Structures are given as structure tokens and as C-alpha cells.
Amino acid sequence: KNEVEQSPQNLTAQEGEFITINCSYSVGISALHWLQQHPGGGIVSLFMLSSGKKKHGRLIATINIQEKHSSLHITASHPRDSAVYICAVLASGSRLTFGEGTQLTVNP
Amino acid sequence: DTAVSQTPKYLVTQMGNDKSIKCEQNLGHDTMYWYKQDSKKFLKIMFSYNNKELIINETVPNRFSPKSPDKAHLNLHINSLELGDSAVYFCASSQQGGSGNTIYFGEGSWLTVV
Asked: How many angstroms separate the CA of residue B76 from the nearest CA in chain A?
């Protein structure tokens, strides 16, 4: 079993819908990252969290350290949000452990 | 101004060849990484260098050898390429080992071994 589990693996939504992607992890961490990978392949860091909640535009990320759980929310989703969203945790040193990613498709 | 740049973006080569992928970051970061993304899109750490010193070396065949001539560069050399080495390789960098800091990724290098 992977130390980082994401759900769902695949998600299809209609434009405008509110989207939630979940990440659970089984180890103690110092930080959690949410990453976005577009079809072209490049990876962009969306958030780095160690507690609480962060917001950037239509994106919101939350983390509950006690429950070892994080969520990424997208409000008013748009087709350009279609991408793979990857959760990654920093458990020891500088070693990131990745979830398997959530493929999001937003239809117009 | 690309923060983390890696070359080449695409590489097709025959089994048994030796190839290198270069990575440079202009962010002044102390730590650089190589990650491998397999056909199932799963990312795994391969190596991490902090100020030119190797700090993470996952279970990677010794055909893979990272070289860091200075803290702005981390190159990946692969000897005797095998079919299973086909993957996307991502270089990344962060300040101070990544703890509490954003990680910046390169665009990826698509390696195909035929």
C-alpha cells in the first residue's frame, strides 16, 4: 500500500462545478504539496501546506495533520483546470513521496 | 527566464547506449533533485543533492550516476540503457531541502529506449 493515497483516481466534471480531490497519508510529515501536471507534462507546484488552509484564486487546499488528510478544492471549475493533480508529502529529510495522481477532466 | 531547465526534452536512443540529461536552475536554490515518472504517471525520487553533496540515493541501478558540478547544475548520466529506463525524468529544485519551501520542476525529459 502506498504511503500516499489519492481519491478519486479519475474525475469528470462539468464546467462550473465545485471539485474536491482528497489525499490521505500514513506517515508523519513536515509538509504536503499539491502539484498540477498538464497534458504537456510540465509540473507546477500549487500549494505547500504544513497546517490549516491556503487559497489561491479558485483553488483552496486544506490539511488536517491529526487525521493525516488533505483536500484540494476547485471552485467554478473550467476546462483549463483539466490536468493531473498530485499530492506529495515530505516525510523525512527532503524526500517527497507522491500519490498516484487524480486525472481531472472538466467538460465545457 | 526558465527557473529550472533540462535538456534534451525528448531523447530516443537504442539499448546499450550511454546518455546524459542536463539540468540547470537559476533560482539560487541549495537543493536539486531527479525524479522518474513511469508509464503509469507515478513519480519517484531518484537522487537529491544539497550544495553539490549527495543526500538522497534511492534504490536506483548504478547505471544511473548524477553529477553536480556546482549547486546550480545537476546532470543525470545513464549507462547501458535498457528498455525499462524509458520514462519521463524530471529535474527539480528547492531551497534548504524542501522543508517548508516550494519545489520547482523542470519541463521533463522524455526518454525512449528502443
From this structure: 18
Q: Are A31 and A91 in contact (CB under 8 A)?
A: no
The whole-angstrom separation of Cα B114 and Cα B104 is 30
Which triple of cell numbers denotes residue A52?
A: 490549516
Q: Three-state SS for A81?
A: helix
> Measured between beta carbons, which residues in chain A are less than 8 angstroms from residue B102?
45, 48
CB atoms within 10 A of CB A39: 8
Assess contact for A77 and A106: CB atoms under 8 A.
Answer: yes
**Average pLDDT score, chain B:** 91
- On whether any CB of chain B is under 8 Å from the CB of A95, the answer is yes
Identify which of B43, B48, B88 has the shortest CB distance to residue A86. B43
Q: Taking residues B58-72, what's their average pLDDT?
A: 89
Contact assessment for residue B32 and residue B105, using Cβ atoms and an 8 Å cutoff: no
Cα–Cα distance between A70 and A83 in angstroms, integer? Answer: 18
Nearest Cβ partner of A101 from B41, B55, B110? B41
Q: How confident is the model at residue B85 (pLDDT cuts 50, 70, 90)?
A: very high
Q: Which three cell numbers stand for residue A26?
A: 500514513
Of residues A45, A50, A101, nearest to B103 (C-beta): A45
